[in-house]
Amino acid sequence: MIILGIETSCDETAMTVLKIKNGKNPVFSILSNIVSSQIELHQKYGGVYPFLAKREHQKNLPLVFKQALQKAKTPISKIDLIAITSGPGLEPCLWTGVNFGKEITEKNNLPIVAVNHIEAHILINWLQSTDKKNQFKKIKINFPAVCLVVSGGHSQLVLIEKFKKYKIIGETRDDAAGECFDKTARILGLGYPGGPKIAAEASKFSDSDNRFSIKLPRPMIYQKNYDFSFSGLKTSVLYDFKKRKLSEKKSKKYIQAMSKEIEQAIIDVLIHKTIKAAKDNNAKTIMLAGGVSANKELGRQFKKAVQKKSEKTCFLKPNIEFSTDNAFMVAVAGYFNKNKKTSWKKVKVNANLKI
Ligand code: KG4
Ligand code: ZN
Q1: Which of 24, 31, 161, 228 is in the most buried spot, having the most CB atoms within 10 Å?
Q2: Which residues line ligand 1 at a C-beta cut-off of 6 Å?
Q3: Range of the domain at 180
Q4: Predicted TM-score (pTM) of this structure
């Protein structure tokens, strides 16, 4: 079967045409993967403005659609199912994509499946590249699994007892981890999106140069629950930044040292809480999901921490290109939820959708 995945929940207008060879061991082939990113536009404002993003989606959707079909050499008549992100996300952006999806679904008399964006981030962990380019196979995952979902809007610990059965066991009480990266990057004048900018500055820091001796808090790290809180971390960064002399604020070394400490404080909390959740729930697998999982240092330190916990625990994280928002994960989630396909009339947006 062939699925067209559509993603517009935030600042990416993305579509993927995905061919799936059905069966016990399905094989997934990406026929096209078109992304129109709005990063440059939002960089000017230091964050995503929903109505500006909506306007861009409206402009980009017909072009991305045309390119996705052309590149896949697949006419719309060959598409079997439309998979569309219906939440969570920015409401005006979600509606733009959903309305576009409904229109093509109605016009071409196709079934449609509404995809939960967070579930899509999680499910991408079930796909592993094969030797062939753009081809993936489904892997077997041992349960129970604990998934750390870390994106711009979410920080959650999810217990997965079996395939597609989720239980949120912890979540952020205020800012998400990605939001913390974005907001602290803005304080430091690094621009948007903050995660990659902070990571790039942090990687330039050298241990021998710690003259700024910055020590940020690790909020809630030793509390017995699995919840997070990152807004205090952001406030601490702001206080430190404000008390610095102008020459320090402008110094590359200060920005690098602060970026390193921000990144490490977030990593420490995420790893500590996830390992605790995994131990308490006898998890056989630990996985990461969402945009922050693109952070290389997080991945490296997580792998080490999981190995230290137990050689037997499996650690999974998405390929970097599919960590941040993409339409491939939406098409994949559409496939795994194909039994929920429905008529375009029934699809609604829910900006606060939970898994
Ligand atoms: O999942 P995602 O692409 O969009 C949402 O669903 O929110 O996640 C975006 C978030 C942003 O906050 C961005 O700063 C963060 O992921 N991010 C990173 C990195 N790449 C993206 N955070 C840390 N390190 C990165 N390399
Ligand atoms: Zn996302």
Answers
A1: 228
A2: 10, 151-153, 178, 181-182, 193-196, 199, 290-292, 294-295, 324-325
A3: 145-283
A4: 0.97
